[in-house]
Specification:
By secondary structure, this protein is mostly helical. The chain contains six helices and no strands. Helix 2 packs antiparallel against helix 6 and helix 3 packs antiparallel against helix 4.
């Protein structure tokens, strides 16, 4: 029997988000018509903005110091690279020359990122579980953050990078 989102632990929630976005990217690839493509792209961008927010605000900080720091650092940078494309996609539209290409490159970036997180032994999720993180407590916190992030991003807030030079949120 399939678990509901409310019953999932943190890793199951993140993996469910990954599968949802993978499905949306597949739909985009086969979609015809500008309106359908734009609708799918907007949904993809919203889902990714919310997902990156819960990872960056809850999951990654919980992992810091308990798994390989390089993995956490790389995940933040991968998110920021994706956010640049997300903001470009949201600012544009299907009539723009590189619109489909941007969505395709974003899908490839996300595919790589997901692979890094989900690798069986050395992946972030595997290391986090082995480190003994409380995945149920993290899931509760992530669900709460997801609600506020969804509301924030549905209102039109753009994705903010944190690791790129010139960003106000750069960690010291």
């Amino acid at each position: 029997m399939t678990q509901t989102y409310e019953e999932m632990d943190a890793i199951a929630m993140l993996k469910a988000d990954h599968r949802k976005v993978e499905d949306l990217f597949e739909q985009f690839e086969t979609a015809s018509g500008k309106a359908k493509k734009q609708s799918l792209a907007e949904t993809i961008c919203l889902e990714l903005k919310v997902h990156t927010a819960i990872e960056e605000e809850v999951f990654y900080p919980a992992c810091r110091g308990k798994i390989e720091d390089d993995l956490v650092d790389e995940a933040y940078v991968e998110h920021d690279a994706a956010k640049v494309l997300i903001n470009e996609i949201e600012a544009g539209g299907p009539d723009e020359k590189f619109y489909d290409a941007k969505v395709k490159v974003l899908s490839e970036m996300i595919e790589h990122h997901v692979e890094e997180e989900e690798k069986r032994v050395e992946g972030m999720f595997s290391q986090a579980r082995s480190a003994g993180l409380d995945m149920d407590a993290l899931a509760d916190e992530m669900r709460a953050h997801k609600k506020t992030a969804t509301a924030k991003f549905q209102s039109g807030k753009s994705a903010q990078t944190t690791t790129f030079e010139g960003d106000s949120g750069v960690a010291a």
